[in-house]
Amino acid sequence: MEETISLKELLETLKKRLGLILTITCIAAIISGIVSFFILTPIYQASTQILVNQNKSEQAVYNYSEVQTNLQLINTYNVIIKSPAILDIVKDNLKLGETVNLNEKITVGSEKDSQVVNVSVQDPDPVVAARIANETASVFKEEIVKIMNVDNVNILAKAEVKENPEPIKPRPLLNIAIAIVVGLMAGVGLAFLLEYFDNTIKTEQDIDRILGLPVLGVIATIDNDKIIEMKTKRTERRTRARGEKVGI
């Protein structure tokens, strides 16, 4: 015989385990908030833009084939920017030390069908991030002439540090929201898991459902207040009966 669970039973399970679900959700949110605000190091980002072209043709102001060639070379420029030929010079110029891995800090990319290269740098110090981004662009502009004989490089936008820079990560509110959702799902899952492994019989319906035995009778339960009230009334009746006998 297949067992079916009605929506009412599901709601009753959630209601019975509501305290557990809320506790797990609150704990997850608190832990996420503590980690986001006090443990994780804020990371700032600075970006600069570079426009790279081949040597200009003297025959025409606009040459479609040259533009297509430049677009195809964008991926090559991206690789060159993150190569030791560029980053080692940047590291020496800024005196960052050998332990600093600029490859992990720098992200190079470009928009589709665009000759503009975006250089983004992430660092716990916003000033250092801006210095690395600008120095990388400057070194690339100088060294690309030797590497690929390209002398038409323009820096479109330099990285600047705002007055009150905001970190790009972590995002505490987003992390807390995600933790609440995850905690809620974990709490609901644990509630149904506990209910599934709970084999105790609590109602007469459980006897019929689990044991398959018919219920012949039910013993009503009486709380303590009713028992005390019944004893008090019984005592009063006895006292009254004795008083009537004495009066006779």
Automatic annotation (TrEMBL):
List the Pfam families hit by this protein, alphabetically: GNVR, Wzz
Keywords linked to the UniProt accession: Cell membrane, Membrane, Transmembrane, Transmembrane helix
**InterPro entries hit by this protein:** Bact_polysacc_biosynth/exp (IPR050445), GNVR (IPR032807), LPS_length_determ_N (IPR003856)
Tyrosine-protein kinase G-rich domain segment(s): 141-193
Write out the annotated subcellular location: Cell membrane
Q: Does the keyword RNA-binding apply?
A: no
Q: List, for all copies, the residue spans of the domain called Polysaccharide chain length determinant N-terminal.
A: 3-94
Parts of the chain that traverse the membrane: 20-40, 173-194
Tell me yes or no: is Transmembrane helix among this UniProt entry's keywords: yes
**What protein name is recorded for this chain?**
Capsular biosynthesis protein
Q: Which organism is it from?
A: Neobacillus piezotolerans
